[in-house]
What we know:
The complex is a heterodimer.
Chain A: E1 2-10, H1 15-28, E2 33-38, E3 47-55, E4 67-72, H2 75-85, E5 86-95, H3 102-105, H4 114-124, E6 127-131, H5 133-140, H6 146-157, H7 164-174, H8 180-195
Parallel strand pairs in A: 1-4, 4-5, 5-6
Antiparallel strand pairs in A: 1-3, 2-3
Helix pairs in contact in A: 1-7, 2-4, 5-6, 5-8, 6-8
Chain B: E1 12-16, H1 17-27, E2 32-35, H2 42-51, E3 58-61, H3 65-77, E4 82-87, H4 88-104, E5 110-116, H5 130-135, E6 139-141, H6 146-163, E7 167-172, H7 173-176, E8 178-183, H8 214-234, E9 239-241, E10 247-252, H9 254-265, E11 273-277, E12 279-281, H10 285-293, E13 297-301, H11 307-319, E14 324-326, H12 343-353, H13 362-372, H14 387-399, E15 407-409, H15 454-464, E16 471-476, H16 477-493, E17 499-504, H17 533-539, E18 544-549, H18 553-565, E19 570-575, H19 579-584, E20 591-595, H20 605-609, E21 614-617, E22 620-623, H21 633-637, E23 643-647
Parallel strand pairs in B: 2-3, 2-4, 4-5, 5-7, 6-7, 10-11, 10-13, 13-14, 15-16, 16-17, 17-19, 18-19
Antiparallel strand pairs in B: 1-8, 6-12, 9-11, 20-23, 21-22
The complex binds thiamine diphosphate (TPP).
Amino acid sequence: MKFNLIICGVGGQGSILSSKIIADAAIKKGYEVRVGETFGAAMRGGSVSSHVKIGDIHSPLVAHNSADVILSMEPLESLRVSVDYLAPQGIVISDIRPWYPVDTNAGGAPYPSNDEIIAELKKLGKEVHFLDAAALAKKAGHPRTTNIVLIGALAALGKLPIESKYLIEAIKERVPQKTIDVNIKAFELGFDSIKKS
Amino acid sequence: MKWITKDEPGSIKLMMGNEAIARGAIEAGVQLTACYPGTPSSEIGEVLGEVAKDLNQYFEWSTNETVAFEVAAGASLAGARALTAMKNAGFNLVMDNFMTLTYGGVKGGFVVVVADDPGAHYSSNEQDTRIEAVAAELLIFEPQDQNQARLMTKEAFDISEKLELPVFLRSVTRLSHASGNVEFGKISQKRNTIGFNKHWKIPYRWDVYGPPGPQSKREWLHSRLPMMAEYVENSEFNKLTICDSKIGIVTVGIAATYVKEALAELNLVDKIHLLDLGIVNPLPKAKVAELLNNSDHLIVVEEGDPVVENAVRLLAKELKPEIIIQGKLFDNRVFPTEGEMDPDNVRIGISNALNLVINKDLKREELKAAIKKIITTRSSTLCPGCPHLGSYWAMRKILEKYEGNSIVNGDIGCYEQGGYGLATNTFEITDEDNKNFKINSPYEILDTIYVMGSGIGMAQGQYQVGHKGKILAVAGDSTFFHTCLPTLANAVYNEADITFVVFDNTWTCMTGHQPNPVTGIKGNGDVATIISIEKVSEALGIHSVSVADAYDIEGAKKVLKAGLDYNGPAVVILRRECALQVLRRKEFPPFEFEILQDKCIGCKACVELGCPAITFANGKADIDRALCVDCSLCAQVCPVDAIICRSV
Ligand SMILES: Cc1ncc(C[n+]2csc(CCOP(=O)(O)OP(=O)(O)O)c2C)c(N)n1
């Protein structure tokens, strides 16, 4: 068994934490796992992605055209990563809120709409799910749980070779004690948003 | 007790390569660690600093890598197990003693960890430091995964003590900054005895000039090489698998993981020979000879420069000159000579060497090329409210007032983004000798950037040959103490009329906010004396030293003008703590800024400040409240007072 996942977003959005949670859960289930981080220094604002590989694997990087799922915190970042890495049978899950780069804000560079992005993603892969994860996070009780909403959505797809109980256990261990309930709620809201759609 | 110090052999945790190296050192009973931060190596020091007090070990963030190396080497001579860790660039500072310490060797296990950065994700270059460690004739470990990183670090202390030599452990970004399954081993409770013996086993052991002199010490070093050769032949970290084949692969470190995946993909597992090395130097000659004997074609796969390939070729020239070897050298190369190795280029390289058909979906490639055109670049920026934004604004505005072509020499730190440029910028490239460019973004202001401490030195050369125009250099607080002090003394001694601007934001930010001599905290968390940059500058003989708050643009302009107008070397300190650190402490100001949409004239002054919290749409600027830290800089640059401050 081999499962390739890439989690991406903009520095400061929490995608690194998501990759650690999923990797912890994979270890709990007894898998071999590698997480390769791409870019992302202490600074905020740049493109960040984490490659998470589970099963019969060795290296920390996903090969081109072979990501089973791309989980993105930002629409354009989902396309940036998908264009190189998404497998033709792959699935994309993304939050719908754009984070405009300085190149657009200050330099006036055009920024594609979500509809355009979804259309291109459909040409690259098999399924595309755009959800208002930030709104669900707010509903769960804190905007910073957007990443956990997306993990819930990922779990609901049924492609990840890890059961929700391991993910929930891993979330409980990684998030601050006081925020466990909010995070579990965020996970459930993300899960339901896919299950019901 | 921190999780990483738990003595629970057998338990499996997700660990970053750097954490695994730290855990290996903890298991080996390291007694002293000294580091200077540098991505991708910093977490080794961060972990060992955090646990130092619990484990009764010494940890320090030193002022630079040379210092860290000397501190650790000194501890080893006094018997302690010692470790130093740094990035590729930092290792260059260490070379002088690195090439000399080996002559008398060491006593306590001494492990030198260097994290290279192929692909230059976080570095000024792609340097492969194994080349220097080979030149120093040392044992070089290169782990391929996180668990092996732990095992090798632990083993490195033992073998260092047996050989009485430092051991080099080479990591790379994809190991240090990747995570994987790590199995905890036993934590050794044994600690080496501390003491000092001037003539330990060899006369004048720790004094290269002690009679009969350096050459005899080198003879001693060479007398250790047979022990090393025997060790690598028997080490479990070097594995040779011979199959029914005439083709073999030699690989090492992280590259081995790409090779194993490629072999699986290409259905070649156990169908060609594999020499899977964990030790780069020296080469296990008997194992390589056996591989040569069984092959007529070898492929060498490694991360970085062709270090192992060179050694294999040298031995092959002696033992089997007719063999075909393919790697990164010569015209038959199959791997790229710049950039990182990855699953794709390794699979393609092996396929090309073996003349296997590579299936390429051309239609998909065309589709990708078309899509890439609409993917807007995301240039990295300084953070919202970064004090450097205020400093750069003040600097740009004041420099516009001076005649001539000013040069702003950059340096390494978050402020190096002043030279990252904007992807959307357009400019003319010419061969004129002197040309002035208008700068309208903080990301375009720096004219030169090389390595830590280089800016202030280059500024002096530009001045001494008579460049017409103001000459400046910038550096952060950590960089100031790292490599600027002798260069600043030089400016005074040789009377260079330059303005040296120090961006003091209290921390070594770019590498993850480590403390340094201006922070007031030591690497193990203890309180430290704060060293004053202004007093140091004055003591070195700088007569024009001034300080302003980087959040006060008018004040910053005033002190910059004073520095620029001064005839002789001047130091200007622009001070304000890193906004991220303030945010992390949840210190929110009791006010908020807002752009009044009806007052905004769309002049883009605030946009030109370069703060990522400023957005611009439909001819008006606005503030992204999710990002803003209410630093007030945009309000200061707005020409029509459209940005107002409200209490909250
Ligand atoms: C020789 C060397 N050592 C370490 C590094 C890693 N590094 C990059 S920037 C930096 C220092 C940044 O601190 P500071 O000068 O205070 O600037 P800041 O990032 O806080 O603005 C370091 C240590 C390096 N690039 N070169």
